């Protein structure tokens, strides 16, 4: 039963261009598939306890799925966000064309992401990690324009190169493992790594950086600000809010469920990981602050914010782990909302730059209210989810024995929050409070309810996660 939420959307995605439904029929088809997938993904990952081996490559190498609280968490975030974004996308994609092709890959990508979430060993994880890349490439190059094709190729090259780095680590970690099923605390055989610590740590680092490519961690972040501006808004939203989290899923499974934190804590691997994450947080915020193109600004924001998650994971403590997962959900809700709002503005007004958005809140009030709420969450203003997640990460850093990093991490988070306010609040302020001389007689250009309601739902989810942050913290704490 656990394979149903994986293969139902994949098969439905393959069939969609063959069946060629149009108009309402296509909308009902996509909605039904994503809704069924969401229900099955949450229900089955919450209840299934038995491993399912799909097939064996050798006696030891199998493609196997299993459910635990981590897979439940990621499956829920992925499938619910995918469903809400699907509803938003229908009116938007009418203006993009080639909808059957788009939704075919849209559904297939959902299926492989669920497969990645419930992967039970490194081989299955790596297989579906690669499938995420190939399923998502057509979403980036959808328009088939020169810049879209170029961006898609850049995304593909970065992702494949990162995956090859990770594959180097997979070979070595597999050799040093006493077992192959993901197990909290790790499955490494201490006797196997005795005398081979240098190559062992190098393999771990290669996996973190390789899988971190999908998460946009420096120095492998270059694909993100290139791919997001050219992709359709629904694809940009999911690339930023969800697909980039494929790297996070992989790093969680490698560090916490295969290697074990005890083999990394206090080593150069943890030190360099923290440095790269801090550099990415700061660099992404600076680049977003300087960028005028709205979707590219949001792309650099993603580079910064996903490395908040990396920072939490690099703490190698339960508090850091919970803070990181909390930010997974907080960032998904906020960033999908922001990209969808940007898409609505581009669709209805044709404006792509932040400097062009004066008075936009008067013409598109619901869209800009959703943008505002999501911005407050991403900045880290209480009681939004972004504040809760950043608080947990900062507390994890302060309470840990990391030397200068115990002070540096909270300091960088604070500076980044100020920069985030600096690049997200100006369009809000100028949008709702235009300068003197603004023509208030301009007609309303608000997007249709099918686009504004999903954005408002996601922005309020971010608020509710913040209000009930302790409940979320308590549940995520059970994982560790």
Beta-strand share of residues: under 5%
Low-confidence stretches: none
**Global Rg:** 21 Å
- The whole-number mean of residue pLDDT values reads 90
- Tally of helical segments: 20
Oligomeric assembly: single chain
The largest sheet has its strands arranged as 1-2
Would you report the number of β strands? 2
Can you write the helix and strand succession as a string? Answer: HHEEHHHHHHHHHHHHHHHHHH
Main sheet specs? 2 strands, antiparallel
Structural class: mainly alpha
Q: How far apart are the termini?
A: 26 Å
Instruction: Indicate the overall shape.
Output: globular
- Helicity range of the residues? over 70%
Overview of this protein structure:
The protein is an all-alpha fold. It has a domain at 266-480. The chain is built from 20 helices and 2 strands. It has a two-stranded antiparallel ribbon. Helix 3 (69-94) packs antiparallel against helix 4 (99-117) and helix 6 packs antiparallel against helix 8. The radius of gyration is 21 Å and the shape is globular. The mean pLDDT is 90.
Structure summary:
The protein has 480 residues and is mainly α. Helix content is 74%, strand content 2%.
Characteristic key phrases:
74% helix; two-stranded antiparallel ribbon; mainly alpha; 20 helices; 2 strands
Helix/strand layout:
Layout: H1 4-19, H2 23-47, E1 52-56, E2 62-65, H3 69-94, H4 99-117, H5 122-140, H6 146-176, H7 190-193, H8 197-212, H9 223-230, H10 233-243, H11 245-259, H12 268-290, H13 294-314, H14 318-349, H15 360-363, H16 365-379, H17 385-399, H18 405-432, H19 449-467, H20 469-477
Antiparallel strand pairs: 1-2
